[in-house]
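Task: sequence design from structure.
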């Protein structure tokens, strides 16, 4: 069987031997009873990391985002999010299905919404209009190419949300990528938002799980909705142990993924069929346009042993992660050069 270099996502990593050992030896209990010591330890660690009073371990990044929307809104209200955000593109209309809210999509630049535009789209109080209740931002921004939301822009949106009495949720699925790159702590990012979620199963390399952090009332509500959605897990310490291991061992090394992504982007930018905004390559994701049919390029690369994704006819994505080293990065570049 062909051994692929898999750049489809940073979700494809497999737990290392050491992580599996941590998982195998995890102390567990029934987390629906609040009895799982490893889940409790993970939630405690995330409270410390974010400075938020409460944290809830959940199955996935989608569940964390959807719980946040559910807890910050009421049906028939409206949320503002960047038009290419994960919440809009990839969560199966979850905000309408789960929370009964409408989404106001705003186009950002490299995933960053203009604060004046956000302000301009907060609904005035009128009987024709839904009430705007939540703003969502994404850091790093996946579809913009793993771009970092600048701290000053988050501060502006945070001030606006406070002034207008709106909640602000940060989809921080890849917040550690932003943090290691900028040196800005998770606590500082978290201090500017009402809720933050992040994933252990992306760059951090754990097999399963995300966390949602916020104040106590918010998390109490989220806990109940997690139960309704079937997200109450029993001996969840088995997976929380992988997440704890990831937090302890796999954060600083994210810089290597960023270095590999940068090198890959610079090299493939020299190819005649690739168009790439090198300024958008800020962390571990490389998104680029192709002059030829992207799905044909993807199929040709697959035959050579390289997996990437294409989005429509002219857009492709390659994601760097802990199962890709610098040699494999060179091989991936060579495969791009050879087609
Ligand atoms: N992103 C996945 C796919 O769903 C596209 C990927 O391969 O990048 N927020 C952001 C910013 C994400 O990129 C993702 C996953 C999620 C939330 C959802 O996480 P999961 O897959 O754990 O539900």
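Answer:
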């Amino acid at each position: 069987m062909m051994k692929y270099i898999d750049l489809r996502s940073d979700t494809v990593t497999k737990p290392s031997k050491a992580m599996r050992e941590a998982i195998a030896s995890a102390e567990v209990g029934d987390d629906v009873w609040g009895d799982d010591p490893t889940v409790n330890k993970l939630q405690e660690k995330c409270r410390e990391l974010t400075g938020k009073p409460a944290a809830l371990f959940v199955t996935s990044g989608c569940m964390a985002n959807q719980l946040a929307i559910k807890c910050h809104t009421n049906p028939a209200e409206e949320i503002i999010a960047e038009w290419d955000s994960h919440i809009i593109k990839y969560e199966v209309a979850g905000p309408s299905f789960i929370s009964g809210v409408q989404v106001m999509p705003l186009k950002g630049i490299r995933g960053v919404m203009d604060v004046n535009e956000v302000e301009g789209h907060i609904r005035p109080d009128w009987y024709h209009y839904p009430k705007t209740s939540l703003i969502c931002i994404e850091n790093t921004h996946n579809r913009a190419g793993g771009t970092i939301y600048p701290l000053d822009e988050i501060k502006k949106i945070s001030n606006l949300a406070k002034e207008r009495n709106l909640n602000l949720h940060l989809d921080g699925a890849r917040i550690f990528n932003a943090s290691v790159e900028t040196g800005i702590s998770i606590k500082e990012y978290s201090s500017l938002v009402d809720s933050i979620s992040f994933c252990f199963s992306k760059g951090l390399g754990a097999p399963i799980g995300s966390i949602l952090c916020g104040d106590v009332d918010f998390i109490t509500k989220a806990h109940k909705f997690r139960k309704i959605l079937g997200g109450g897990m029993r001996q969840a310490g088995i997976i929380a142990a992988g997440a704890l291991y990831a937090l302890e061992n796999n954060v600083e090394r994210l810089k290597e993924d960023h270095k590999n992504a940068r090198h890959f982007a610079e090299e493939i930018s020299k190819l005649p069929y690739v168009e790439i905004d090198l300024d958008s390559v800020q962390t571990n994701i490389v998104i680029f346009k192709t002059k030829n049919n992207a799905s044909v390029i993807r199929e040709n690369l697959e035959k050579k042993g390289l997996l990437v994704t294409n989005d429509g006819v002219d857009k492709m994505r390659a994601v760097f992660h802990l199962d890709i080293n610098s040699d494999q990065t060179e091989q991936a570049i060579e495969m791009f050069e050879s087609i």
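The chain has two domains: 17-249, 253-338.
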